[in-house]
Amino acid sequence: MTTAGVPVHRCDTCGNTVFPEPVWCFECGGNQWTVVEVFDGVVEESTTVLHADGDFPMATVRIDDNLAVIAAAPNGITPGTAVRLSYEDGQLRAS
Ligand SMILES: [Zn+2]
Predict the structure, then answer these.
(1) N or C, fewer C-beta in 10 Å, the chain?
(2) What is the pLDDT of residues 25-68, one digit of tens each?
């Protein structure tokens, strides 16, 4: 399977970036988008989600000034770490 980046939607009107695809732009109300695949981000904070099936380390990954995403992450990853993002089967991963 080929690895895909995060399909970030960039508003054609104001340049606002969002993920996942919204119905309209929160900034200007526009609904025309250009999809840009993003692979790089920086960990802002990390946490571990405790679940009956196991513990899932997650990270908030900053993509740009107005966009951060929540991704599955390696255990123990620390804020400030540069990560590679991928998007497969509806799941975001940072590695
Ligand atoms: Zn906009």
Answers:
(1) N
(2) 999 999 999 999 999 999 999 999 998 998 999 999 999 998 99
3-state SS class at 88: strand
Domains contained in the chain, CATH given:
6-94 (2.40.50)
CA of 95 to the centre of ligand 1 (A): 30
User: In angstroms, what is the span from residue 52 Cα to ligand 1's centroid?
Assistant: 40
What is the Cα–Cα distance from 95 to 84, expressed in whole angstroms? 5
Q: How far is the CA of 66 from the centre of ligand 1 (A)?
A: 12
DSSP 65: T
For residue 2, the model assigns a pLDDT of 60
pLDDT at 90: 86
Q: How far is the CA of 6 from the centre of ligand 1 (A)?
A: 19
